[in-house]
Amino acid sequence: MDRKFLKNAVILTAICAMSCNLTFAADAIKIGVPVGLSGANSVVAPGVVQSAQLAVDEINAAGGVLGRQLELEIADDGSGAVGAQKAFDSLVFQKKVDVIISMETSAARNAGLPIVNKGKVPYIYTSFYEGHSCSPWLFVDAWVPEQQVPPVVDYFMHFKKAQSFFLIGSDYSFGRGMLSFTRKYIESNGGKVVGEEYLPMDGTDWTAVLSKLRASKADALITSTAGGAPNVSLTKQLRATGLNLPYGNLAVDEGTAKSMGADGQGIYISASYVTGIDSPQNKQYLADIEKKFGADLKTPNDLSVPEYEAIYLYKAALEKAGSTQSDKVQQALAQVSYQGPRGHVEMSKQHHAPLNMYLGQVQPDGSVKVIQNFKNVGPGAQCPN
Amino acid sequence: MSLILDIISTAAILYLVAAGLLMIYGVMKIANFAHGAFLTLGAYVCLVVTKLGVSPWFALPAAILIGGFFGMFVEHFIVKPLYARPLDAILATWGLGIVIAQVITLIFGREVQFANSPMSGPMDVFGTEYSSYRVMLIGIAALLAAILTFLLTRTRFGLVTRAVIMNENLARGLGIHSGRVRFFTFSLGAGLGCLAGTLITPLSSVDPGMGIPWLINAFMLVMVAGSSMSGLVLATLLFGGIQILLSTFVSPVLGGIAIVLLAAITLRIRPKGFSND
Q: What is the pLDDT of residues A26-37, one digit of tens each?
């Protein structure tokens, strides 16, 4: 009787140990992805999710990280502050994710930061933005104005002999932030800003602004409008005026520029990623994501590729830290690097990343040709303290 | 010169956008908040024409026809039961606008799309380079104003319509089928809205929400113009002109609210607006 009991106990313990061990091994590392599936970001968000899925599937197929699989927890943040609070709350405190890696609007990021700080969860922000957002838990692997603006201005000054610039934007924080940096940069390089005009964010009638541009006789135009309608209407109306001057658009992505057809031709764009980057990593990435999503593929862009790279950066940080423990991962994130489609990425400069920047020009067939490559452009002092 | 062209062409665009709304408001005293969606519909007509690969000029008659037929449908099933309840009609047309925008989103997707423009590039106007499309819009607006004025003042339809506007009960007593007048005016208004949507496509983007920014200005102009076509011409020239002057010499952000602000002030001082009756 005793022996039988003992035997059963041993078997039970063994089973328990096995199954407990199994559940422990299957316990995936959770990556929270709050993203704007509805609202203003709904056009770009699906591409970001695809990019994240590719990275996670690749890593899992290669055996995962620290013997564990990765798992995505996707949440809709509604592209704004209210939705982001709910999304971050549920990811950090209910789903208990190990990290948050996502492209979001600035409003959503600002709303999510206090929650991340309270939950002590590392947060990799993968969208370019106006800069100077700082927290011990926040890391950024995309560009800030200090990195995007100089290629356009430098190119116009040196190769187009532009001395006077005209700036046009939409009246909101990103538009004004970008152009105020642009103005400073132009003036510190000896150029002149002969006009700076804004329309309200939903404004699409640029008649008066374009007449001022014509009257100003500026050598070059740089714009930073809200995405979508304002940007498109400005470009169309500009083309109809027949004004022919170098036109740098800080707010257009490759896909939109392509779909503008003849109106888009000749626009200069500055980005850390364009599909035309000639590197083995980029070609491999494009082939892999094409194979995975086929006809459903959203064109990879400057918002989706940083998401892919951020997941690999997180993987590297986990391996360096040897665990998912937040404070160790946080330290490691500032030290690791990854060679991705955009080139070498590391978030080593005050939690921001020096990046390769590309100046591209939209060609007659809609493709973006890389005109100049700026290696290792620093983000400047983003969080000096 | 370029300033004068800016003012006239802006007034022309405002007139085109507001004319359909005025037809409906003037006759029915119903504020058609679905007008923004009619504009959007017109833009997607333009998009479909582009995708079919035929000349962009085809979009203009197509927009009037599609808008007109759609207007008939809307009048019969949605607006007609609400004639005695103008406030409910506002809600119903506002809701209809949302429904149309969502259906368009379902069919064509959320993203900004591009339609071919019938004309592009600049032309020479008395020594000034100016967008040829905007110059053409001035012509179209003038033509439309002439046609509408002729229709309302020189035809049987116009006579009957004006009778309904002045005194509907009396008109009915004289044997005028006021329901039919309302039916045709609404369809015409919808057709004009759709046409305006097609005409503004080369100036803006094609997306499901594109009609909304135009709606508010058009609505304000119609409130000021009352039920008079000439009042609308005056209102667009005056307010459009002030909008351009403010945008050019003060700030485009201020110019953006000029029409709404001026309309509010005008109606405060003179509740009838620019109409005489």
A: 589 999 999 988
**Scanning the structure block, which residue is given the tokens 């009991």?**
A5
Is residue B106, in this structure, part of any structural domain at all?
yes
Tell me the two tokens of residue A212. Answer: 């001022």
Partner B contacted by A242 (CB < 8 A): yes
CB-CB neighbors (< 8 A) of A233 in chain B: 203-205
Q: What tokens appear for A244 in the block?
A: 């022919």
Residue span of the structural domain in which B52 resides: 2-269
Q: Is residue B276 part of a domain?
A: no
Per residue in A72-115, pLDDT tens?
999 999 888 899 999 999 999 999 999 999 999 888 999 999 99
What pTM value is reported for the model?
0.77
Domain at B32, CATH number:
1.10.3470
Tokens of A257: 């520029």
- Nearest CA of chain B to the CA of A354: how many Å? 32
Q: What ipTM was predicted for this assembly?
A: 0.76
- The answer to whether A240 touches B93, Cβ cutoff 8 Å, is no
In a domain, B10, yes or no: yes
Residue B259 lies in a domain: yes
DSSP code, position A92: I
Q: Which of B6, B121, B252 lies nearest to residue A198, judging by beta carbons?
A: B252
Instruction: Tally A–B CB contacts below 8 A.
Output: 99
Q: Which of B113, B203, B247 sits opposite A236 (nearest CB)?
A: B203
CA distance B180 to chain A (A): 37
